Amino acid sequence: AQRVTQPEKLLSVFKGAPVELKCNYSYSGSPELFWYVQYSRQRLQLLLRHISRESIKGFTADLNKGETSFHLKKPFAQEEDSAMYYCALSRNSGYALNFGKGTSLLVTP
Amino acid sequence: EAGVAQSPRYKIIEKRQSVAFWCNPISGHATLYWYQQILGQGPKLLIQFQNNGVVDDSQLPKDRFSAERLKGVDSTLKIQPAKLEDSAVYLCASSLGTMSTSYEQYFGPGTRLTVT
C-alpha cells in the first residue's frame, strides 16, 4: 500500500531562517515523488519532482530511498514562501497522486 | 494556455439531494483526474480517465458517486444522494498523457461542496 506522511501540520519560521518540510513514504516499488504547493487563493501547483533534480524558487528535495524520505529544504525562507505544501507519491508516470495531509508553512518577518 | 476550468465554484445542498460538478481540462490533455479533498486532508483520487476510458476508479464510492467523460474532453462528477461526509473540495486535474515528460498534473480551482 502507498502511504505519504507529513508529520508537521504547521511549521513557523522567521524570514531568512532555513526551512525543512518533512515527508516520509511507504511503497514497495520505486515510486515517483513530488512536492505540490498551494499559495493563498491559488490553485494547487507542482513545485518540484525528484526525477528532475531541479531547484525551484530555492527549494530542493532529495529522495532518500534508505530512509524512504523526500524532505523539502530551503536555506533562507522568504515571506512569499508562506503556503500549504503537499508531498505526493505516484507509482509510475501518468498515474494518480497519493498525497500527504500537507504542512502549512508560515514565514514571519 | 487556459487552465483547467471547474464549475460551480461553490455548492450548498441538503443531505440526500443530488449534485453535479463539471470540469473542462486543458486542451489536448488526454488524462483527467477527480480528487476529493476533505478539510485538513490531502487530495484523494476518486477517478482517473485516459481519454474517455476509466483507468482507476477503485476509490470511487460507486453506490452514490458516478463520473463520465464523454468524447474524451469535459467530465462530470455526480453525487446522488449526498451525505454529510461528502462535504469537501472536489478538484479536477488534467495532464497531457503518460509519457514521462508530460505527466505533470494541472489542477483546477476546485468546487467547494457543503452538505447540510
In words, what does this structure look like?
The complex is a heterodimer of chains A (109) and B (116). With 109 residues, chain A is mainly beta. Chain A has no helices and eleven strands. Chain A has a single domain, classed as Immunoglobulins (Immunoglobulin-like). Chain A has strands at 3-5, 10-14, 19-21, 24-26, 32-38, 45-49, 60-61, 72-74, 83-90, 98-99, 103-108. In chain A, strands 2, 5, 6, 9, 10 and 11 form a six-stranded mixed beta sheet that branches. In chain A, strands 3-8-7 form a three-stranded antiparallel beta sheet, with no helix packed on it. A two-stranded antiparallel ribbon of chain A has the order 1-4. The model of chain A has no long low-confidence stretch (mean pLDDT 92). Chain B has 116 residues and is mostly beta strands. Chain B has one domain (15-100): Immunoglobulin-like, CATH 2.60.40.10. Helix content of chain B is 0%, strand content 47%. Chain B has no helices and eleven strands. In chain B, the strands form two sheets. In chain B, strands 2, 4, 5, 6, 9, 10 and 11 form a seven-stranded mixed beta sheet that branches. In chain B, strands 1-3-8-7 form a four-stranded antiparallel beta sheet, with no helix packed on it. Chain B is globular and about 35 Å long. The model of chain B has no long low-confidence stretch (mean pLDDT 93). The A-B interface holds A 4, 43-46, 49, 51, 86, 88, 93-102 and B 3, 31, 33, 40-45, 48, 55-56, 91, 95, 97-100, 103-110.
Topology of helices and strands:
The complex is a heterodimer of chains A (109) and B (116).
Chain A: E1 3-5, E2 10-14, E3 19-21, E4 24-26, E5 32-38, E6 45-49, E7 60-61, E8 72-74, E9 83-90, E10 98-99, E11 103-108
Parallel strand pairs in A: 2-11
Antiparallel strand pairs in A: 1-4, 3-8, 5-6, 5-9, 7-8, 9-10, 9-11
Chain B: E1 5-7, E2 10-13, E3 19-24, E4 31-37, E5 44-50, E6 53-56, E7 65-68, E8 75-79, E9 88-95, E10 106-107, E11 111-115
Parallel strand pairs in B: 2-11
Antiparallel strand pairs in B: 1-3, 3-8, 4-5, 4-9, 5-6, 7-8, 9-10, 9-11
